[in-house]
Design a protein that fits this description.
Neutral Protease, domain 2; M1_LTA4H; Peptidase_M4/M1_CTD_sf; Immunoglobulin-like; 33% strand; alpha+beta; 10 helices
Length: 672
């Protein structure tokens, strides 16, 4: 997901510089099905999107023209769940009526007697739910309104034999015991499910959509249906994310948390008022059919772990076929707000750039579609979010937005890899998704648009560091959550890259993706990949920056210069005291410049807490600076990295690295 927030930076340099700059920036997600189809010419239609494939129980395999041989479908994931759903949007655009036939297959080695379902719309049921109390009714810049109340009612729950299971349901609150929170429910099954066996249930439900807030709801006639159906939780097998015993991973819907679910198959029929156009996860299996003022769409997706859809009568639809190395064939579908209809090429270029770069760097994009939804001006609560093969951009608020447009699309498509295929647990290890996606986003923005991240400024945002490996609700505020799982997490990855080099870092990221795609890896799994690729232990680095809340801080503590004579020649002995105040020791360059213009750079491994560096030279020392190239990106206190030597102690002023360049950097970030 993309956090969009404003931070005030107040840089006071002992009365010399007073600078307050408000910097706004975005971080941003998407994905779909594994089959490659022969691509027809792109449609110029701005109304109903054409059918992607004929109606079938499973997606058809199209004969390839060069060989005449149809490829054999293969599962990419374990497909633990299978959903067959029908959902209808009422005329008031405020309610959904749905039913589903859901099958869960026991992936473990033990018999399972209980199922857990996430009922996410109940997060908006009242101000007393866990989500609302933790978030304060605010997520990013979006605030809940008086109409941002919603819920999910389970109307029926039966076995295939018709046995009523509703009396067996119990709402549970494993994280905080909040009895007003009904986002997680436990079902005691009438018959246990043996290993490798499955259970199928029929469910009927009703959803009251909130006025769009926190990723779902309505805004006027626009609808975003995210987390809209009863979703089975993840049953983790032994070894998954370091588990020593298998069992359910269940949590309530929290103020900061996103989602975690298992891979499977989705076949979904969506019924809407006749004027509506629908965007959804997966691909459309037939042309939409209409009668009695209504219209039905049919979508199919497999090897995905969620299903979302959006609908509006105002969407301006555009579609293009795209292929590249690692992207064997995908239809990029745009569902634009009319205000951004003329920006189609910018959206397309961002999507193509992201898909091609991620495929080149990490691995193949295996789905046949990618849909991009642009919400209307008042629908930004649905913006900047990722779902399998479907992402949302930020709302169309400006006719000519800055690079926020591209950055958000690039970020959200990055989530197709780290949220989508790698499928990290966003409840407990959000940094593995958001931090990795932010890291990848920066690389695409630099490669495709020449926009380099200002890591010095970004490091200065880190005012409240916290461990990255912790539940999302353990952070003290949304600001602390965003600072750490997006920004500090990204800096941790850049810090690894700066130590191992670009080529080795590329191998680390690709190896991690290839090893854990369609699985659920943990922080420890990533550390093992880093150690295997580099053939080096990274215990101290991960202990300090991932499992703990450390930032790196080095300072020039003092400079002493005294004249001396050696062999009849007048020299100056300059002694610089350098301290490591925080962080994990790593090789740090210290630059000393003398009054005659000569420069000496020494490397310190920082294994100790401090070091004294002494240099004999024909001229006195003018200044000393730590890490002039800012390779130590986790240093968030640059003001103590520099000291002049030629001022009395009482008037000595510590300067951050190049104040003028710092100001230019700050002003340069205003277009983020």
């Amino acid at each position: 997901m993309t956090p969009r927030y404003v931070k005030r930076i107040l840089l006071v340099m002992l009365g010399i510089v007073l600078l307050g700059v408000s910097v706004q920036y975005g971080f941003g997600n998407a994905w779909q099905s594994q089959y490659t189809y022969a691509l027809a010419p792109a449609s110029n239609s701005k109304q109903q999107p054409p059918a992607s494939a004929p109606k079938t129980a499973k997606p058809p395999v199209v004969q390839q023209p060069d060989t005449g041989v149809a490829p054999k479908p293969q599962s990419l994931s374990k497909r633990v769940v299978e959903y067959h759903m029908n959902v209808s949007l009422r005329e008031d655009v405020r309610h959904l009526d749905g039913d589903q036939l859901v099958t869960w297959t026991n992936p473990g080695k033990k018999t399972v007697s209980e199922l857990y379902f996430h009922l996410y719309p109940n997060a908006f049921q009242s101000k007393k739910t866990t989500f609302m109390t933790e978030s304060g009714g605010k997520l990013r810049e979006d605030k809940a309104t008086a109409d941002s109340l919603g819920y999910m009612n389970l109307l029926s729950l039966q076995t295939l034999d018709g046995e009523n299971l509703l009396p067996r349901l119990h709402y549970v609150q494993p994280d905080d015991g909040n009895e007003n929170d009904l986002t997680l429910v436990k079902l005691r099954l009438p018959e246990p499910v043996a290993p490798g066996k499955n259970v199928t249930l029929r469910m009927g439900f009703e959803v009251k959509l909130p006025e769009v807030f926190a990723r779902m709801g309505y805004s006027g006639n626009f609808v975003m249906a995210g987390q809209w159906f009863p979703k089975i939780a993840v049953y983790e097998t032994t070894g998954t994310r370091g588990r020593t015993t298998e069992g359910w991973n269940v949590h309530q819907y929290h103020g900061n948390s996103e989602f975690y679910s298992d891979f499977g198959i989705y076949s979904v029929k969506i019924n809407v008022p006749e004027s509506y156009i629908v965007a959804a996860t997966g691909f459309q299996t037939k042309t939409a059919e209409g009668s009695n003022g209504r219209k039905s769409y049919q979508f199919y997706a497999e090897d995905v772990h969620d299903f979302a859809w959006s609908a509006s009568p105002d969407f301006v639809f555009a579609e293009e076929a795209f292929s590249a190395a690692g992207v064997p064939g995908v239809r990029i579908k745009l569902y634009l707000d009319p205000l951004h209809a003329d920006l189609k090429e910018r959206y397309m270029h961002a999507a193509k750039s992201a898909l091609s770069k991620y495929a080149q760097w990490y691995g193949e994009y295996p789905y046949s579609t990618l849909s991009i939804v642009v919400p209307p001006k008042d629908g930004n609560g649905a913006g900047g979010m990722e779902y399998p093969t479907l992402i949302t951009a930020f709302a169309a608020e400006k006719a000519n937005p800055g690079y926020d447009l591209e950055r958000t699309v690039v970020h959200e498509i990055g989530h197709q890899y780290w949220y989508g295929m790698v499928a990290s647990n966003e409840f407990e290890e959000a940094w593995l998704d958001e931090g990795f996606t932010s890291y990848a986003e920066d690389m695409v923005m630099e490669s495709a648009y020449g926009l380099e991240p200002n890591l010095r400024i970004e490091a200065s945002y880190m005012t409240d560091p916290a461990p990255l490996k912790q539940p999302s609700w353990a952070y003290s505020s949304h600001d602390q959550y965003a600072e750490n799982v997006y920004l500090r997490a990204k800096l941790v990855l850049v810090g690894i890259r700066n130590q191992v080099g670009d080529k080795t870092m590329a191998k680390i990221m690709r190896t991690y993706f290839q090893k854990y795609k369609f699985k659920h890896p943990s922080t420890a799994d990533f550390q093992r990949v880093v150690e295997q690729v580099t053939k080096t232990k990274w215990h101290d680095y991960f202990s300090g920056y991932v499992y703990a809340n450390q930032m790196s801080d080095y300072s020039v503590e003092s400079i002493q210069v005294k004249p001396t004579e050696q062999d009849g020649q007048r020299l100056y002995e300059s002694t610089v005291l350098i301290k490591r105040n925080g962080g994990v020791g790593s090789q740090i360059p210290i630059t000393m410049q003398f009054t005659d213009g000569a420069t000496v750079t020494k490397l310190w491994d920082a294994e100790e807490s401090h070091v004294q560096l002494t240099q004999l030279h024909t001229a006195p020392l003018q200044w000393a600076m730590i890490d002039s190239g800012h390779s130590n990106v986790l240093d968030n206190k640059l003001i103590n990295n520099y000291m002049q030597a030629d001022l009395p102690d009482k008037t000595r002023i510590r300067w951050g690295i190049s104040v003028s360049k710092l100001i230019e950097g700050l002003l340069g970030t205003m277009s983020w």
